[in-house]
Amino acid sequence: MELDGAVVIVTGASSGIGAATARLAAARGAKVVLAARRAGRIKDLADDLPGAVAVPTDLRDPAQIVRLVDATLDRFGRVDVLVNNAGQGLHVPLEQVRLDDLRAITELNVYAPLLAMQAVIPPMRRQGGGVIVNVSSMTSRMVLPGVGGYSATKSALNMLSQVARRELAPDGIVVSIVYPSVTATEFHQALAAGTRVGGDSWAVRAHSAESVAEAIVGVIQSGEEEIMLTSGWDQGAADRRDKGQPQ
Ligand SMILES: NC(=O)c1ccc[n+]([C@@H]2O[C@H](COP(=O)([O-])OP(=O)(O)OC[C@H]3O[C@@H](n4cnc5c(N)ncnc54)[C@H](OP(=O)(O)O)[C@@H]3O)[C@@H](O)[C@H]2O)c1
């Protein structure tokens, strides 16, 4: 899919990977629809990006997801790309996972992307195709103690995405997954519970939001099934460095 002139919904566009993706897609000529709860942030970003529009949205509310897609269709008459990027972490051992926290991140990390896919499928089908990119996490491709609740939500998203790719192929709708690893964003301060993995040395090895945005825009253009952003992140080495131990 070429981005020039395409209508692209980006969820979680108020910071980090979503904001960087919106900027890059707009720079490639896309008309970007920015969704997140912090209205001031997405309105400011929309002011910076030609043709962009901000639609304040709480993605944990199914009705607001429908409203987001309706607002996109009202404004542009079509939707070419959906980037399901919004997400939140939950970084505590399983013994400490509170069901309310797991329920909240499941609503955001699993139900919201599913509902958003369901909302864009009919217009994409009518148009003869479209692209959906779901932002997962490399934690769902490992067995990483301390992030089991979060990884479980992203594992569920992976399966929904893989099945959707096959179900929607006859309609010309391409579904892809991008798996970021540690990325320097507000994610690590916005966890539903717990603390970031990797101690103080995380930032040294973290990807930039812009580099993940390059991968997302790349996959929109290529239609590849998945891209894994392995960073060479070495948890043991990071822990040793934080403790002042030899690497
Ligand atoms: N950073 C990492 O190390 C990392 C690693 C692997 C995967 N990821 C994944 O990458 C994606 C983007 O994360 P990020 O690193 O860019 O984190 P971030 O900077 O914390 O951004 C998260 C975005 O999600 C939005 N969001 C949270 N709750 C929402 C809700 N209820 N309704 C609407 N929007 C909501 C936030 O906007 P508002 O608060 O304004 O609503 C924000 O724009 C997530 O899916 C995350 O799981 C991140």
Kindly describe this structure:
There is one protein chain. The chain has 247 residues and is α/β, with parallel strands linked by helices. Helices cover 46% and strands 14% of the residues. It has eight helices and seven strands, in the order E-H-E-H-E-H-E-H-E-H-E-H-H-E-H. Strands 3-2-1-4-5-6-7 form a seven-stranded parallel beta sheet, with helices on both faces. Strand 5, helix 5 and strand 6 form a beta-alpha-beta unit. Helix 4 packs parallel to helix 5. The longest helix is centred in the middle third of the chain and has 29 residues. The protein is globular and about 50 Å long. It starts with 6 loop residues before the first strand and ends in a 5-residue tail after the last helix. The mean pLDDT is 92. The chain binds NADP nicotinamide-adenine-dinucleotide phosphate. The site of NADP nicotinamide-adenine-dinucleotide phosphate (NAP) has 29 residues, from helix 1.
